[in-house]
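Please check what follows.
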Amino acid sequence: MANGLDKVMDALDIETFIVAKDEDEAIRTIRQIMTDMGLRDIDVVYCKHLGPGARVRARGYVFRAGDMYGWLKEAQQ
């Protein structure tokens, strides 16, 4: 298996506190973090600015319903 994310059934959720001046900056930052991790299909589920930053939860879809799942590819080899 070339990629550990192939074992993920559907999505990877990340929740963190990001230092940011506002929610827009926090959203841009979490999208960049998840893109850097190799995730391309990203939804920001929650973002709330609190003091020096924002509490952010984002979901990066590895596979959507009906995709050719990575774990199926491995089973076929």
Strands lie at 11-19, 41-50, 53-61.
